[in-house]
Design a protein that fits this description.
The protein has two domains: 96 residues, 434 Repressor (Amino-terminal Domain); 44 residues, no CATH class. The chain has nine helices and no strands. It is mainly α and 143 residues long.
Length: 143
Amino acid sequence: MCKHISEQFNNIRKCGFMTGEFGKYIEQKRKAKNMTLRGFAAELDIAPAYMSDIEKGHRYPPDKDKLEAMVRILGLSGEEADKMYDLAAHEKDNTVSPDLPEYIMGTEKARVALRLARDNGATDATWQKVIDMLEAEQAAKKS
């Protein structure tokens, strides 16, 4: 599951400009809910022209509060929300997905682990082992 998502983002080439993938994703999810652009913008309390520019890839994704509202309004699953946050981060250079900084900064061990991974050149295979371990831990808690 997580491996598939990371492979998608490895295929997005960042060249210092917006890819437009975030806007396309939001437009697709909005249309799947049969929402008009104007109706969606109204629920987000933003101008329809601004929402249109976001969907066309002419503007950066909005701030975290608006992104969280998008998740709620569109009824996105956890995996869909994660993808949306990652797409939002990929629209900007050197940006972390907006749902992660608070956790990273509030969890010392996460920062230590990320720096160790960076300094040691952790591969996707290494990260997949970490993901597998965390998913096994999560499954054990559920049972």
